[in-house]
């Protein structure tokens, strides 16, 4: 899977996840369970992951939605 966003902001991640679902792109928010270790303080970032073959399309959707500044560097 390809990491698109790494953030502590649950609203941002929820919005990005919603955009992916609306576009029919399977995505996964990784590291959500880490809140147990950190005491639910939101200090550890979560990661939005998509399938490699959908990464370019997902990236374009996020840019079009104004989230281009949140994207991880393209590898």
Automatic annotation (TrEMBL):
Pfam families from the UniProt entry: DUF2007
Q: Which part of the chain is the DUF2007 domain?
A: 1-65
Leader sequence residues: none
Q: Which InterPro entries match?
A: DUF2007 (IPR018551), N-reg_PII-like_a/b (IPR011322)
Q: What is this protein called?
A: DUF2007 domain-containing protein
Naturally occurring in which organism (per UniProt): Rhizobium pisi
């Amino acid at each position: 899977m390809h990491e698109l966003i790494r953030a502590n902001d649950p609203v941002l991640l929820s919005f990005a996840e919603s955009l992916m679902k609306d576009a029919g792109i399977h995505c996964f928010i990784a590291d959500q369970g880490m809140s147990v270790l950190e005491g639910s303080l939101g200090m550890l970032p979560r990661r939005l992951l998509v399938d490699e073959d959908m990464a370019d399309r997902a990236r374009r959707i996020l840019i079009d939605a104004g989230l281009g500044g949140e994207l991880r560097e393209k590898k």
